[in-house]
């Protein structure tokens, strides 16, 4: 989602275009924030439907101006309504809603502050989590590695919700738009929720391919060279409709 004007914090506890103030529950926001919340909820539900998370594990956020909408902590995604919109500013102060934001909020905010991210998706995808326990970097098993900026690193383990996890993840994301998190899962970001989600799904698929190929006795998967990845990256930049 591209940034638009007029959606940042207006005053203490208020968000532009949104009725009510911090701590108040309304029928839901309006305008761009409402649209973003609807897309966020749909994306969160998709992570469950596609098997990337179980229950309420994982989390999703999207940035609108200087406001970050995030899935709330411990609430099943199929129960979320427009009135459940949960938002914070870039310092983590809650500016909208009564539900507590995801416990991984420090991680999401760190990514927004350090990158050009407009949306972040974090999952506990099975194959990606398995790979995170085996290697320090996902081998270049497929040319879509280039779409994430290069071989995908594994962030060192730290307890969830901690500043240490955020720091470790940012190091793994340097020059990348996605990473694995040791014994934890995945994190990807993008210019919008659609792109961030697609990168998550692609990362999980590549992990599955590598695990499958690596499991064949007596054979070692062929990997792409840095030159081949660079060529793929150039071609991917011109891929799709203009």
Task: Please explain how this structure is put together.
There is one protein chain. It is built from six helices and eleven strands. It is globular and about 55 Å long. The longest helix is centred in the C-terminal third of the chain and has 22 residues. The N terminus is likely disordered. α2 packs parallel to α4 and α3 crosses α5. The chain has a nine-stranded mixed sheet, sandwiched between helices. A hairpin with a 4-residue loop joins β5 and β6. The protein is an alpha+beta fold and 242 residues long.
- Write down the overall mean pLDDT: 88
Distance between the termini: 17 Å
Radius of gyration: 18 Å
Morphology call: globular
What fraction strand?
A: 15-25%
Low-confidence region ranges:
1-27
Helix content percent band = 25-40%
User: What profile does the largest beta sheet have?
Assistant: 9 strands, mixed
The total beta strand count reads 11
The helix tally amounts to 6
User: Could you give the order of the helices and strands?
Assistant: EEHEEEEHEHEEHEEHH
**Helix/strand-derived class?**
alpha+beta
Widest sheet, order of strands: 6-5-4-3-7-11-10-9-8
